[in-house]
Amino acid sequence: GDPSPQFSAVFEDVPENELRGAAEYLGAKPQDIRILEGPNADLPTCPSYQENFEKRKHKTSHVESMAHLNSLAGQLSHREGCMALIRTEEQRAPREF
Question: For all residues of the chain together, what is the average pLDDT?
Answer without folding.
Answer: 82
